[in-house]
Amino acid sequence: IVNEILRLNEDPNVQGLALDLPESLYSSKVLSAVKPEKDVDGLSDINLGRLVRGGANDCLVPPTACAVMELLEDLGGKTVVLLGAGGAVGAALQCMLQREGAATLSCQWRAPQLQAKLHHADVVVVGSTKPDDVPLSWIKPGTTVISCSHDLLSEKHNYGQQNNYAAENAVSSLAIAMRMQNMVKNMERWIQSQQYRKWDLRCLKLQPLSPVPSDIEISRAQSPKAVDVLAKEIGLLTDEIEIYGQTKAKVRLSLLERLKNQPDGKYVLVAGITPTPLGEGKSTVTVGLVQALTAHLNINSFACLRQPSQGPTFGVKGGAAGGGYAQVIPMEEFNLHLTGDIHAITAANNLLAAAIDARILHENTQSDKALYNRLVPVVNGMRGFSAIQLARLRRLGINKTDPGALTEEEISKFVRLDIDPSTITWQRVVDTNDRFLRKITVGQANTEKGFVRQAQFDIAVASEIMAILALTTSLQDMKERLGKMVVANDKKGEPVTAEDLGVTGALAVLMKDAIKPTLMQTLEGTPVFVHAGPFANIAHGNSSVLADKIALKLVGEKGFVVTEAGFGADIGMEKFFNIKCRASGLVPSVVVLVATVRALKMHGGGPSVTAGAPLKKEYTEENLQLVADGCCNLQKQIQITQLFGVPVVVALNVFKTDSPAEVDLVCKIAKQSGAFDAVPCDHWSAGGRGAVKLAQAVEKAANQKTSFKYLYSLEV
């Protein structure tokens, strides 16, 4: 019974659970197994606890207890004896009777001085079968006697024909009605739970230190909330998250269906001026902005970030969790394996690479008949095409479904892809900067029968599968996109796809968990989605469409989703507009353009910068001319943004070496160049409080009327 209850607890298609069991089976173990939110009989410990505490509106009351109370009126000052009515129903009755002002006494049939207790009772509620040695004469005439038991469908007990027992046969029918009422109430609650929930977010307090400690010290000094607590605070249901440890959780795509009628929030993109080795701090601004919006202005907001590759993380660039007091925490979890999405991409990518080489080998060494027997084997005396093979036959113009009906020519056409090895574009990947794998030779083992070719490893996030993950809108959409990936040409120059190799289903299965965004939090306890991590120089350089879509539903109509584009605005931002927005159909509200005085000085002709080397004096001393000369880059990026019809707010990341005059000059030039506003920020050293003015400017800009447009059509 318990196993069946636990199964039904986890069934999303079951919203309520009622128990009809023999009385002997109503044990505490059985009753406590029922989820409180599905407990239509109100017998679980949590429901009873809420009733006792006084939260009758917050719980479901046992139907039998409700039925008894419906039959009784004007209980104030009366004495009620609960006879043989124990367990959850007895406890509920005692609580409800006392609340109505009745003096309530609970006892068993073998209780001492039972006759005297019954003689003084105005009402007797019988909860179990009367023993033969307890005469009815012990109950004084005129006493109201109500019989109730766990068996709601039968009332066989007979306590006599006097009018003071008239109510006993009404309990079971009324209890059934009350149970139905509980079912309706429970369904109403479930429907309400599926609607958008107002956030009840508890932000974490920051106590910034000066000088600012290292990023890892700051991250480890903060105690993050448990991720299931964070999920509940932002309106996620328990069956919509898959928890990974204490601080990470995958969010299921079913949420999009649940909240499909919920209006989206505002959509904000963080981009930067042309990057320099000094770094502009786009991730830091993204995190600082959401900390300011939610922790300091009480506006729902979500940051959507890319998952960092281990290549840059273990290289010169480092991680991508933000920095200072504007970080995603725990920093180590964010920057390392996270929930294994990049590993899933690596596995899928390399499975496809292995399938290419294996197919070439088999086609080179086997006859058409042998290949056909391998691809369409006889199983239990039957041979049949799979769905993906039938699709390939249709693409070849062969409209047959019986494997035995194909001609020799059709079999040859079906089994041979005739891949030209010199045209293979699909490479193996590894998420490490391993320079000695950039050019390799494969096939040197004797078992490969002389099929040797030059190949290479790319970094894992450069895989086309990563770009697909970031653009996909559903599992089915991802499967279709994976199937269309071109891996090589055949010897006639025609493209060969993953679908032709028959591995699309296997790739989709490997990616089934990676498609779900990962929920984390900032230093101030505000929510973050980490999902996908394509580079902007080889792909589109943005986090996933799915993470953005889910976040836009969760923040509500007045909330903000802040996402980030890689590299400079002239690559990451343009790809965000031209590629990501086309794929998603989402329209951005504001662009936040990140700049620093140091980077502008470099664009203005300042000396070259080497990562790790001390900065030259041009970058540490005031130089207004150098700043003014470099602002041409900022002005160009503002102009590009305006071409798309989106308002732009410039966020100037302030460093301690920046002079007030330099900061003022950049803000002045930015506004003169068409920026809606330009705001100095010091969230790196102060957390969200240092980005409050930026958040206010973004909120105002988002209320402006936008005229977003694409700069070119996809029509040829």
Automatic annotation (TrEMBL):
<dbReference type="InterPro" id="IPR020631">
    <property type="entry name" value="THF_DH/CycHdrlase_NAD-bd_dom"/>
</dbReference>
<dbReference type="InterPro" id="IPR046346">
    <property type="entry name" value="Aminoacid_DH-like_N_sf"/>
</dbReference>
<dbReference type="GO" id="GO:0035999">
    <property type="term" value="P:tetrahydrofolate interconversion"/>
</dbReference>
<dbReference type="InterPro" id="IPR027417">
    <property type="entry name" value="P-loop_NTPase"/>
</dbReference>
<keyword id="KW-0554">One-carbon metabolism</keyword>
<dbReference type="Pfam" id="PF02882">
    <property type="entry name" value="THF_DHG_CYH_C"/>
</dbReference>
<comment type="pathway">
    <text>One-carbon metabolism; tetrahydrofolate interconversion.</text>
</comment>
<keyword id="KW-0067">ATP-binding</keyword>
<dbReference type="GO" id="GO:0004329">
    <property type="term" value="F:formate-tetrahydrofolate ligase activity"/>
</dbReference>
<dbReference type="InterPro" id="IPR036291">
    <property type="entry name" value="NAD(P)-bd_dom_sf"/>
</dbReference>
<dbReference type="GO" id="GO:0005739">
    <property type="term" value="C:mitochondrion"/>
</dbReference>
<keyword id="KW-0547">Nucleotide-binding</keyword>
<feature type="domain" description="Tetrahydrofolate dehydrogenase/cyclohydrolase NAD(P)-binding">
    <location>
        <begin position="62"/>
        <end position="166"/>
    </location>
</feature>
<dbReference type="InterPro" id="IPR000672">
    <property type="entry name" value="THF_DH/CycHdrlase"/>
</dbReference>
<comment type="similarity">
    <text>In the C-terminal section; belongs to the formate--tetrahydrofolate ligase family.</text>
</comment>
<comment type="subunit">
    <text>Homodimer.</text>
</comment>
<dbReference type="InterPro" id="IPR020628">
    <property type="entry name" value="Formate_THF_ligase_CS"/>
</dbReference>
<comment type="similarity">
    <text>In the N-terminal section; belongs to the tetrahydrofolate dehydrogenase/cyclohydrolase family.</text>
</comment>
<protein>
    <recommendedName>
        <fullName>formate--tetrahydrofolate ligase</fullName>
        <ecNumber>6.3.4.3</ecNumber>
    </recommendedName>
</protein>
<dbReference type="InterPro" id="IPR000559">
    <property type="entry name" value="Formate_THF_ligase"/>
</dbReference>
<dbReference type="GO" id="GO:0005829">
    <property type="term" value="C:cytosol"/>
</dbReference>
<dbReference type="GO" id="GO:0004488">
    <property type="term" value="F:methylenetetrahydrofolate dehydrogenase (NADP+) activity"/>
</dbReference>
<keyword id="KW-0436">Ligase</keyword>
<dbReference type="GO" id="GO:0005524">
    <property type="term" value="F:ATP binding"/>
</dbReference>
<dbReference type="Pfam" id="PF01268">
    <property type="entry name" value="FTHFS"/>
</dbReference>
